[in-house]
Amino acid sequence: MSLLRAQRIHKSYTTGTPVLLDVSFALEKGQCLGLVGESGCGKSTLARCLLGIEHIDDGSLLFEGVPIHGLSERRLRPYRKHIQAVLQNPSAALNPKLTIKDSLLDPYLQFGDQVRLRHFQYANRHDFARQLLEAVELPAALADRYPHELSGGQKQRATIARAISIEPSVIILDEPTASLDVLSQAAVLGLLDRLREQLGIAYLFISHDLAAVHAMSQAIMVMQDGAIVDHFRKEELFDSERHPYTQELVAMFE
Amino acid sequence: MELALAGNTSTLRKRLRTAALLFMLAWPAAAAVYAFLVLNYDPSLVSLADRLLPPSFAHPLGTDHLGRDVLTRLLLGARQTVGYGLLALIAAVAIGVPLGIWAGFKGGLADRILMRIADAFLSFPDTIVAIVLTGLLGAGLENLLLAILVVKWVSYARLARSTVLTERGKDYVLMARINGLRPGRIMSKHLFPHLIGHVLVLASLDVGKIILLISSLSYIGLGAQPPAPEWGAMLNEARPYFQAQPSLMVYPGLMIVFVVLLMGLLGDYWRDKFDVRKEVRP
């Protein structure tokens, strides 16, 4: 059974033009599934639907075989401990009025007593922040700082630390490196890859950057105008039977 | 070099202002201590033999038309005017802020209903509503406080709502939802810290207005009733004796001016401290 499965998802906004068109895929345990496409093609909408921030119009979303689409916020809450997220802009994803430690604590305070952690063992709040910051290669002293005192790369690492703190089974990575400089991008991608191996968390890695997706993922989906036009294993990227749009994307990188 | 110099002068100025503020705050505190140690008069003790006495060692500010010690009444008046003013303000904040956060966060019908009610309250001037309400409920400090509460909660609800509206669409609120926080906790942990600064600034500016409102309504007889030592009421009582003993009106008037000014300065200080301006104009 797949960890997260989307079956024929449709979604359109009030204007009527479909944003997601018959989207289906399956994410397996511990796998990194890449989703690549230009901006505006519906990638982020898909992420928001998977996170239950927006409702889908048709189709189904299954977590470990259990339907989770169309649930009320209250009914969805128990699944939130399994599905976490890292968003594009880390400056917006951290509350500027809270210290890094306070922001990191959110998922753990909510779900700490409901999850069985395999990797982390938190003795107390101080130890909690220290272990997590260490896991994302940040100095423990940052725990008591405010977001504006950190660099963009450091902030994104902090949001990653928050996402892994309760060891979810899936993290939706929505353009996690898009707002970072080239060096931080490479470092953050490397970190995400190591964390996946260490903790066995599956990723849905959403990006417009085919090279990054190719480096991170075992399987890749290509989205164009809300539809998944191509879906293949990492090794098959350069095969001749790839969809013309995929070949176009590849050509842009060569 | 010039920049560094400018930085230094502005910090120096800020420090001087803080020192001046603390100095001014020290006065009422000192007065309160003095009241505790030295006051040996009953503020309502009528002694017609001692009426309208000039300042003396026994009565540092003299006595009023009923022979009551003016200093005693002034100091105890601080408790009535400032104390009740703060009480009304705290009640208004305690009601307005949670309602505003809730309306802004929930949106929809509840928000629209609440804001239309707020608009209705806002469309009348504070003083008129306060006069009408105390007129209807009967003159007295308690009813005046109720009237002030009815008038003042609106601005706090609006302030809280507008702050929440700008914040709630941001990614960190979305992340709090993804992290499983319940709405109540998102409001208290993530949204409330964004309000404190704004609320404190508005509150410290409002305290002055409320004190003026209490005093002016007491002056026209709708607030504190004689023989309560309230500054506005004292002004009113002293009015017929203005020619014989002008100081009787000057002292309570000065106290009102002083406290209102002090609260205005405190508001400025808090505004700088919480950097509200910087946030409002990014």
Automatic annotation (TrEMBL), chain A:
It comes from the Bacteria. Transmembrane segments: none annotated. GO terms for biological process: transmembrane transport. CDD domains: ABC_NikE_OppD_transporters. Keywords: ATP-binding, Nucleotide-binding, Transport. Residues 4-250 form the ABC transporter domain. PROSITE patterns: ABC_TRANSPORTER_1 (PS00211), ABC_TRANSPORTER_2 (PS50893). Pfam families: ABC_tran. The keyword Cytoplasm does not apply. One of its GO terms (molecular function) is ATP binding. PANTHER family: D,D-DIPEPTIDE TRANSPORT ATP-BINDING PROTEIN DDPF-RELATED, TRANSPORT ATP-BINDING PROTEIN. Belongs to the ABC transporter superfamily. This is Peptide/nickel transport system ATP-binding protein. It comes from Paenibacillus methanolicus.
UniProtKB/TrEMBL annotation, chain B:
The chain crosses the membrane at residues 20-41, 82-105, 195-222, 249-270. InterPro entries: ABC_transport_permease, BP-dependent_transpt_permease, MetI-like, MetI-like_sf. One of its GO terms (biological process) is transmembrane transport. It is a multi-pass membrane protein. It comes from the Bacteria. Residues 78-267 form the ABC transmembrane type-1 domain. GO terms for cellular component: plasma membrane. PANTHER family: D,D-DIPEPTIDE TRANSPORT SYSTEM PERMEASE PROTEIN DDPC-RELATED, OLIGOPEPTIDE TRANSPORT SYSTEM PERMEASE PROTEIN APPC. This is Peptide/nickel transport system permease protein.
